[in-house]
Task: inverse folding
């Protein structure tokens, strides 16, 4: 019994990516403070407008997060190649924001696709805060 | 003929008939040398290469094409699909190992033969083989909402992700 508990603990610690949205927010808060001394917390409202605001991409097309994820993050989205994207809001998709590496991978790709630059920790935190708050 | 010899001949003929049947049956099972691409698998390929689009079988393009695809993931058909170096290298190796020029199934060979030696296509849908096989499908059919584009094989070929593009299984959605 004891051995199996130790083993379980070991397995859990090896799987270091498993996280909760709140833990991810804490990590981004640390980063945001480093990026800006004026950091004063994350805002779900800012995240909501970040999610929907369209910008003109240099390829001439208007684009936002909601282009693929739809304006309602409780809905399934669709990629340009016609593949379903599961909803972003944890209220309907509990897998969201539970894997730090996965979250970083997709911020890394999608920020460049939408904003043509990397996102700041402030933006990532606002975004997660918004989605976590969606009821 | 002695009895044991008769038995031996019987057994031999049964096994060879079985083997013949099995090899004949391979044609559509996608075994080596068959008409369909053989089932292949790699966990990272499956996880990483099917988040945004259907899972393309490595036997659809030659090794040089896959190498080009995998070295340009930061602009993958207009999208950023970058991977960490270790994952990218593992998938590249897997694709190369099972690419159209390494396969001996008929479809991969024909795709490969339809590509000129100095070309390195990134799109399967631009190969001569693909174009000749789909010349009766109109542009407006490919644009149907249920299909999207010529890159969405699985809309009409339900076995596409397993490498099965058998004509008898084609069903074009409305």
Result:
């Amino acid at each position: 019994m004891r051995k199996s508990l130790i083993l379980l603990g070991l397995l859990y610690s090896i799987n270091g990516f498993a996280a909760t949205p709140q833990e991810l927010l804490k990590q981004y808060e640390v980063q945001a403070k480093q990026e800006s001394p004026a950091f004063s917390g994350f805002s779900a409202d800012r995240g909501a407008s970040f999610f929907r605001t369209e910008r003109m991409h240099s390829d001439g097309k208007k684009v936002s997060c909601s282009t693929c994820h739809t304006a309602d993050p409780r809905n399934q989205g669709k990629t340009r190649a016609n593949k379903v994207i599961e909803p972003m809001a944890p209220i309907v998709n509990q897998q969201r924001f539970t894997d730090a590496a996965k979250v970083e991978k997709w911020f890394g790709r999608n920020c460049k696709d939408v904003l043509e630059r990397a996102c700041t920790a402030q933006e990532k935190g606002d975004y997660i805060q918004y989605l976590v708050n969606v009821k | 003929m002695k009895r044991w010899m008769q038995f031996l001949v019987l057994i031999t003929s049964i096994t060879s008939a079985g083997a013949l049947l099995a090899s004949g049956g391979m044609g559509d099972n996608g075994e080596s040398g068959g008409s369909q691409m053989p089932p292949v698998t790699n966990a990272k390929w499956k996880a990483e290469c099917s988040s945004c689009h259907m899972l393309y079988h490595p036997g659809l393009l030659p090794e040089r094409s896959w190498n080009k695809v995998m070295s340009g993931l930061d602009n993958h058909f207009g999208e950023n699909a970058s991977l960490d170096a270790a994952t990218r290298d593992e998938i590249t190796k897997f694709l190369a190992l099972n690419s159209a020029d390494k396969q001996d199934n008929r479809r991969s060979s024909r795709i490969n033969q339809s590509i000129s030696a100095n070309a390195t296509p990134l799109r399967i849908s631009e190969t001569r083989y693909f174009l000749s096989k789909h010349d009766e499908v109109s542009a407006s059919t490919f644009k149907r909402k249920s299909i999207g584009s010529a890159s969405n094989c699985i809309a009409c070929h339900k076995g596409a992700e397993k490498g099965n593009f058998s004509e008898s299984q084609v069903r074009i959605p409305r």
About this structure: Residues 19-133 of chain A form a domain with the Cytochrome Bc1 Complex; Chain D, domain 2 fold (CATH 1.10.760.10). The first strand of chain A starts at residue 55 and ends at 56.
